[in-house]
Specification:
Layout (H helix, E strand, L loop, with lengths): L48 E2 L9 E5 L4 E8 L2 E6 L10 H8 L6 E8 L9 H7 L13 E10 L2 E2 L5 H11 L8 E3 L7 H10 L4 E6 L12 E5 L2 E12 L7 E10 L2 E8 L5 H12 L15 E3 L5 E6 L1 E2 L5 E2 L2 E5 L18
Parallel strand pairs: 1-10, 6-8
Antiparallel strand pairs: 2-9, 3-4, 3-5, 5-6, 6-7, 9-10, 11-12, 11-14, 11-15, 12-13, 15-18, 16-17
Length: 352
């Protein structure tokens, strides 16, 4: 004789209230077969902290420092999106990279990397990248740019930002084979001893080295998980005016540069090399539209023209003079607003 089945009692928590399972996560209609992690619309990038020397130890991974525009490549079922560091959609500017992303054979992914134009020795050339895009504010489509990918943040329904770099790197290498001349390439790990890396990079006229903690998750901002060590210093400075020249082609003798110190601007010297006559002509046209009678830096000079602090220039330099100005400065190009470049901050770097 069967005994009547007893009713199943609910599981009780410490407060004697019923325990309920979490509701089943709704599937993304764009990813119907992936009930895992929803794909983020955007991930704020992890940024490298500037350091004077290469860190040593087995916990570090080393790569070349690429000189270009930081991009996130979002591969989705509906297509590919190219997002700049500042969060702007530049999909239409990099059609070759978009086409290559579609050929990777994944349903969903987010690649973190740098759009670059390479010279004949395989080095990234920031000026060439800018020219390929039509200069600052240009609308040109770049057909010369490639993407050097160095991180994988999302893959086929899985958010990888909480996993350590070694795992993300392994998955990236499976997705993008090393070598070849594709429009999407992997930033290869440097296998030289850490003590020799910077000398090796500088000897080949590279910008520098990036060192990354192997066991760290992907964290946005300058956390110290990634470090950059440069051969030649290169930073972003605000253009606050220019010195007129009757002899220089384009009418600009030099650009007046400033950095941040708290909420104030500090004059850091001028740069008169690195730009062509054509660059100078374009700069003068743009700067003349920004003229102001109220300079943010109190400089004196008959030939000085002051402008509103709007244009950010990437400047290469060899160090600092005793009075705190840039030494052997050379103009590399203007930074785009979409690139979200941070103006050089004096605090904690020059001890001011």
């Amino acid at each position: 004789m069967k005994h009547p089945r007893r009713p199943i009692l609910p599981l009780l928590g410490e407060s004697q209230s019923k325990l309920h399972s979490r509701p089943i996560r709704k599937r993304d209609p764009d990813q119907p077969s992936l009930p895992f992690d929803p794909m983020p619309l955007r991930v704020e990038p992890c940024l490298a902290l500037l350091k004077p020397t290469v860190p040593v130890g087995p916990d570090w991974l080393y790569e070349v420092k690429w000189d270009g525009y930081r991009l996130a490549i979002h591969i989705e079922p509906k297509g590919v999106r190219v997002i700049t560091r500042g969060g702007h959609d530049w999909t239409h500017r990099f059609p070759i990279i978009v086409a290559a992303a579609k050929e990777l054979g994944v349903t969903t992914a987010i690649l973190d990397g740098e759009a670059v134009v390479l010279d004949d020795r395989g080095r990234s050339d920031f000026g060439a990248l800018q020219r390929s895009l039509g200069g600052r504010g240009g609308k040109r489509v770049s057909t010369e740019s490639i993407l050097v990918a160095f991180d994988l943040l999302y893959l086929d329904g899985h958010d990888l930002t909480s996993t350590e770099l070694d795992v993300r790197r392994h998955l990236l290498e499976d997705l993008i084979p090393e070598g070849g001349d594709q429009a999407i390439r992997i930033s290869e790990e440097l296998e030289l001893p850490a003590e020799d890396l910077l000398e090796h990079a500088c000897h080949r006229h590279l910008e520098g080295i990036v060192a990354k903690h192997r066991d760290r998750p992907y964290r946005s901002g300058r956390t110290g998980d990634w470090l950059k060590i440069k051969c030649v210093q290169s930073e972003s400075f605000m253009i606050v005016g220019y010195e007129q020249s009757a002899s220089a082609r384009g009418g600009i003798g030099s650009l007046l540069l400033a950095g941040r110190q708290g909420f104030d601007w500090v004059y850091l010297g001028s740069v008169g090399t690195g730009f062509s006559a054509r660059d100078a002509e374009e700069l003068k046209k743009t700067l003349d539209r920004l003229k102001t009678s109220r300079p943010v830096i109190p400089l004196k000079g008959k030939r000085l023209v002051f402008v509103q602090p709007t244009l950010i220039a990437e400047i290469e330099f060899r160090g600092w003079t005793d009075d705190g100005n840039l030494r052997h400065a050379s103009y590399k190009g203007l930074r785009e607003v979409q690139d979200n470049a941070a103006v050089f901050d004096m605090k904690g770097i020059l001890g001011r």
